[in-house]
Amino acid sequence: MSAERWITLLLGSSMLASLALLAVYVLDLGGAPLEGALLAVALGGVGVAIVVWAVALMHAPPEVEERHVLASPPPAREAAAEAMDLPSITRRRFLVRLMLGAGGLLAAALALPAFSLGPQPGRALFESGWRRGARLVGTDGQPIRPDDLVADAVRTVFPEGEVGRPDSPAMLIRLRPSDLQLPVDRLGYDHESCVAYSKICTHAGCPVSLYEQETGRILCPCHQSQFLVTQGAKPVFGPATRSLPQLPLGVDDEGFFVARSDYIEAVGPTYWNRERI
After folding, report:
1. 85-101 tens-digit pLDDT
2. Domain of residue 229, residue span
């Protein structure tokens, strides 16, 4: 079989494999093993076709040409005419177009993983379940009043209706008024010396679920970061470099704790664009 036929067969097989891969992926017909086999055929067909093309159709032997007159001799003109034979040119053009088609379909098949990346996060990194007026409820779903907390008492709270939401747990702590020293940018975030901080560590996103009453520190068990509760949960030990986000607190008409807004900054690990915009 001629080289042209081999190339046609290989590129045709690659195109069929690429089309089959697109269909299998979109219709979810075969799973990863079949998709991998089709991708191997698509890539292999183009690769082998390129090799056959280079070996069989691209002749470029080294030549040394002596200086001669500019006019081509009759034998050279006859050879040029034979090289410009129309059927040969037509076959080459067909193979080039076939190669472009196979390459295009293969590129479409290779782009399929981009559709498996999931939806774009949008502003999900900048928002939690807290909203203005959302009640603070315990893990049992019951709202909490300031009178329910004694000094140094700690409760894990969530927005009402969002118990268990992973980006919204907070530690609600009652402090002694004489101990509270919030930074200027967080003045008024407490209510009757009660404060609420995100339970998601700003270092690596671990849950900061330990509170040491004697030192007034919240501890992260993963990498031992420590945050000073009385001073806006600023980091005082460990790898964390920024304070835990604080939830502005208030009470509603029935005397239950409510959030006055979402956290002012994004929760979780530090990253380049963490400020809310």
Report:
1. 555 545 667 777 777 88
2. 124-259
